[in-house]
Design a protein that fits this description.
Helix content is 40%, strand content 16%. Among the domains are: 124 residues, Rossmann fold; 170 residues, TATA-Binding Protein (2-Layer Sandwich); 90 residues, Death Domain, Fas, CATH 1.10.533. The protein contains 22 helices and 23 strands. About 2% of the residues have low confidence. The chain has 612 residues and is an alpha+beta fold. The chain has a 7-stranded antiparallel β-sheet with strand order 14-15-16-17-13-18-19. Strands 1, 2, 5 and 6 form a 4-stranded parallel β-sheet that branches. Helix 11 packs across helix 12. A hairpin with a 4-residue loop joins strand 11 and strand 12.
Amino acid sequence: MSIWEFSGQDSYYQLYDHFIGNTNCIHVILYNLEDNLQTQIQQCCFWLAFLQSRIPPVEPLGDQGKSHKPAYVILVGTHADSSNCRKISTGEFVSSQSAMLREKVGAKFEVVFSIHNQVLLVDGHAASSPALKALKTLVQDRKQQVIEGLPRVTQFLEQVLANLPEWKRSLNPFPAVTWEGFIQFIHDNVNPLAGDEHLKEVIQQLQLMGEVVYLKCEGEDLILLDPKWLCSTLCGYLLSQEFMETARVTGSYSLEDFQLALPEYHSKDILKVLEALGICIQCETESDTEYEFPCYNLLDRLDGLWDGEDARYMGGQYSGVVLKTGPHAEHLLSVMFPRIQIQLRRNMLHRYTGEPDLYQWLQGSKFCCGPLEGLVTLHQTQLGEEVEVKVRAPKDAKKECFFFLEEILGIIDQVLLEMSPGLPVDKYILSSEDLSSHKEAPHRWSPRDTMDLLHRDGWDGMLQGNNQHKDVSLNHLLCFKSEEVRNQLVRGCDLHVTSISTVTRQALCQLLDPVDPLGKDWCLLAVQMGLQDKVPKLDVASGSYSQTARLLDEWGNNTTSTVGALVDALRTLGREDAADVVLAGVSLYRIMQSENTEEHSTPASSGSTISR
């Protein structure tokens, strides 16, 4: 068994997506009992939301949307000896606050995780205390369950494990090899006849055991044979508060500069590892090769970057979107923002021809491609963090402006998918009129309200403003009044119900699986859908599988089962709450790919639309 400790220091969060996301392990969340109850709850909810964002639900969903493979979590309160906990005759610590914490945390996350039913209160100074013994027993029991679900340990794997220590020592101080180097070593030292499938299987098992870290690189993939060296010695130093305080405020290093910062290693080797981790990216300048580290960038935003007096954009096209997360996950946007900046740079270097330009500063980026300009910024508000995306173009560049916005949103979606695939993100639409007037706080419409109007009234539907904002049509706001753009879009409500994400399906199951006093649950929804004869079949194994999820699967066999039809059925049922979940959780539209849109449209792999 290997134990991985994840620091609570913010600068390290950007790495955790590489190591958290597997359910074949035990997650232990520690909180300090000396903190007040509200802080304890906030700390636990933050880490549970972090885990939820990294570990998306797996189909088939269980009762109330529980993942088929939920992560196992143990809550542990520390400093029991120096807090207000009471020690009873058995030597255990008890606290009424811990029971309240377990209840509140369970109410929000019980259907997401398998959370141990009791909070363990430990005194770290007493190695033989009942709580620590209970923790060891829990870990041992769970370990056996995890092992039973993993591929069996083969003689081949045991031979590879036996060779790892000596191999690591021989590679000191840089315990890394390419995939081809790994294959060669296995053939030379373990089994010359090992085939590709056996090699892939053994590397997956070594990763699950925490023995190696496999990094995908743009060139040859790397295998780190010493995870402790990678996480503690290398990244622990480079992302430490001490190093970051002395790092270059521009976030840019040449090979020679970085060699001076880390003289004990060859800079090219280390930078290749850091690129694979998404901490930096190589950039070619006119005179040299540089490496950009957005996490070190402390530059201020330059004045005039979004000049309202620029003649090119007078009467031009403006559009924008704000991305927000749910409760307890607001901080994750700042964790992801340096990776978004890395991806913006990569996109500019590899996708665009001509002379695109990207200027980046602390919590902000400006991306230009010819006359198209985009601004991506991270903001701290009273309600948490949000990422704002604004684009503008000359008056006649409607189609180009639309696809430029989609391109940037696709880049952000790609980072979200890599770092937080289980994180719901709402995308609010900004007023183009306010953006063109350069108002500091442009009016915004929620994805739920926008989708609802699009479903009811189509592209010509009018979003209501207020005393200071005029009503605006969806055709204007989303399609830039371009018939060509509009003809390439399929409304989200017209998509088949199978397009709904598992995260949204999970939220529906949480609402509709429990028995409703008035019968407004999955059963009556089945009647609404004309599937009353399927109810007995769907009710089989209730409590183990979600009836709502099975109902949606059954209904999805009909080609006319659309997202809009589901919303209508839920409203007829009187479940506006469930209808809101669907409206807020599906794409506003989907772009129909065609030959003449390929140049501008978002890569198909990103799945980007205004609302995920």
